[in-house]
Amino acid sequence: MIIQVPATSANLGPGFDSCGVAVSRYLTIEVKEQQEAWYIEHQLGENIPTDETNLLLTTVRKICPSLQPHRLIMKSEIPLARGLGSSSSVIVAGIELANQLGKLKLDNQMKLELATAIEGHPDNVAPAILGDFVVSAYFPERTTRSVLSVKQSFPTCGVIAYIPKEELLTKTSRNVLPEAFPFKEAVEASAIANVMVAAIVAGDLALAGEMMTADRWHEPYRDVLVPHLKKLKQNCLAWGAYACFLSGAGPTVLILTPVEQTDTIIEKLNKMSNNEAEIIPLTIDRRGIKVSE
Ligand code: HSE
């Protein structure tokens, strides 16, 4: 059995901790034979455990502690600590692995609630499970229906990821956010997010992009950690992109473009980046978790 989970880009500017989109980079878990202890074969580096302390297996054991261990092969195209949902993809894969091996018959809502409780917010795990663009609200105090979410089709466009070489931990990136926010500013920030979501649903990427690029919740505070963001915004918008925003907690920046301009903008980004970032075209993943034999 093979379980595949897509990378995700959270926030899309003003949809902080709520909006996310699945993109075409994947975590793959191949389930091999049963054995006495869990073992994960991977080539992801020495810092990633191969035993039960791996996030994949802590998740599996949380969901279904009695499972018979297996040998697993883990492959990931999702760079770590870059804002593309690498840990969410592992949590979601762990839940699906427990679901399949334990024959738990979890539906998407149950998977979403379990994954969000582990991750702390639903914006990455929801599109990793469901695919495409998902808007969610999390109510941690509820025991059932703690995550309410709606999946929508994201309009067709070019998607470019500008992935800096340096990692940025989500924890570090959340530590620069304010504890409180004046009511008037929150009303403005929320209005920007509302228009963004409505414009995506209406298929108006020009307006959606304008709102994505005008976030007030988190990007202004994270600027200090992601100095490349300001210049990317200026340049990409001047080159005709719809939007340019921090992917999740960063440091990756996502750029949405009219399809016919994607190649030209990638070329310009490559010239600008001086080899300090990997610049890759992506597509929207419409499916989310995929299980195959
Ligand atoms: N919404 C989260 C953040 C995504 O921006 O911190 C990263 O986990």
Automatic annotation (TrEMBL):
SUPFAM superfamilies for this protein: GHMP Kinase, C-terminal domain, Ribosomal protein S5 domain 2-like
Organism this protein belongs to: Enterococcus camelliae
Segments forming domain GHMP kinase C-terminal: 196-272
Keywords: Amino-acid biosynthesis, ATP-binding, Cytoplasm, Kinase, Nucleotide-binding, Threonine biosynthesis, Transferase
Entry's Gene Ontology molecular function annotations: homoserine kinase activity
HAMAP family the record matches: Homoser_kinase
Record function comment: Catalyzes the ATP-dependent phosphorylation of L-homoserine to L-homoserine phosphate.
Positions with a binding annotation for ATP: P79, L80, A81, R82, G83, L84, G85, S86, S87, S88, S89
PANTHER family, per database record: HOMOSERINE KINASE, HOMOSERINE/4-DIPHOSPHOCYTIDYL-2-C-METHYL-D-ERYTHRITOL KINASE
Protein location: Cytoplasm
Family: Belongs to the GHMP kinase family. Homoserine kinase subfamily.
Pathway it works in: Amino-acid biosynthesis; L-threonine biosynthesis; L-threonine from L-aspartate: step 4/5
EC number, as in UniProt: 2.7.1.39
InterPro entries: GHMP_kinase_C_dom, GHMP_kinase_C_sf, GHMP_kinase_N_dom, GHMP_knse_ATP-bd_CS, Homoserine_kinase, Ribosomal_Su5_D2-typ_SF, Ribsml_uS5_D2-typ_fold_subgr
Catalytic activity: L-homoserine + ATP = O-phospho-L-homoserine + ADP + H(+)
Enzymatic class: transferase
Domain called GHMP kinase N-terminal: residue spans: 55-131
Protein's name according to its UniProt entry: Homoserine kinase
